[in-house]
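Box 3.1. Reading complex inputs
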Amino acid sequence: MSNFTKTGKKIIAIGRNYVEHAKELGNAVPSKPFFFLKPTTSYLESGNNIEIPKDSVVHHEVELGVVIGKNGRNIPESEAMSYVEGYCLALDMTARNLQDEAKKKGHPWSISKGFDTFTPVSKFIPKDLIRDPNDVTLWLKVNQIMTQNGSTSDMLFKIPTLINFVSSIMKLEEGDVILTGTPKGVGPIFPGQVVKGGLKLNNHADNIVEFEFG
Amino acid sequence: MSNFTKTGKKIIAIGRNYVEHAKELGNAVPSKPFFFLKPTTSYLESGNNIEIPKDSVVHHEVELGVVIGKNGRNIPESEAMSYVEGYCLALDMTARNLQDEAKKKGHPWSISKGFDTFTPVSKFIPKDLIRDPNDVTLWLKVNQIMTQNGSTSDMLFKIPTLINFVSSIMKLEEGDVILTGTPKGVGPIFPGQVVKGGLKLNNHADNIVEFEFG
Ligand SMILES: [Mg+2]
Ligand SMILES: [Mg+2]
Ligand SMILES: [Mg+2]
């Protein structure tokens, strides 16, 4: 599964899974999970450049990605963690002006979320390295200024709930990734800026992974 | 590419590409194309049963599917048809009540469009068999009553325009499918009903493909 960006077919991205982030965009806090799909053509590996499409305001959303290790439908919460093979640090890049327009019109979000390079990811993190995925810090700096610095302990819906919910609708397959939502602090990036992020266990100093994009 | 349901990674579904269909749902006719993504786990082959999720009103939308034969980004309209390997007849099944709710809230459409079995398809149709994809009839019967019977000549945006538009946002890959929108006559199906459809060249009697679902 270290090659999930090549073999995976689905990226399932959860919306508004952190209360403070829902509020910062003026959105209601959801009473049950919801999600959208991103194409796997949007994956980008560390060291590469994020595209800023013409006339777009592109926001970063740093997120914990859950990499699925085996196929399943209607997975009970109690068994959900056995479907997890590992994790990645991810950015759910969003053309915010296009998303705002889509929301107003009741249109799908797919275009605003789906440009090539709009899902930058770290290398694969084996499950063993993160004993408790609800106790992890995700941080992001834009040109060395910290913009996001949140803990997965603030996730509204936890990973087993998300796996249960998504798999009640669509079969999960080996290599699929669930993006679990972003903590507060989203904001724009502009051409030429450097985006750097990391993931570490809470109360630990060292990052388990880092990534950097132009 | 006859195995596009196994190897393909993206299903890109165009919304409101027939004026009469946009009107029947009370929607505005779009001034440029828009689309949403469906997961490949929603493919269903002829002879199988379409799931009706609990508390859902599930509508049929019969559509021409375009099967992509090679990878490309920013494909010019003039070269677009060389990226087409063939076609399929498809249903873009839609949990209409969930979609209506999503539209009202400005939420993504992915759940309402993404259940397993929500993209029933025919077998692969090699490109040679359809000289002019803008001159094809798509029909659908529910329990032997004709509900949809439209011609692709009524598509608002033609295939080269769609390929150019989609590939300006995301790379198209071999095995990807573009669903080109539905003509008027969409409506609900209920458990136990039989859905039968076909695709034929205009002014020809024989179907090139047929499919049937429970
Ligand atoms: Mg969507
Ligand atoms: Mg996000
Ligand atoms: Mg449709």
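In summary: The radius of gyration of chain A is 16 Å.
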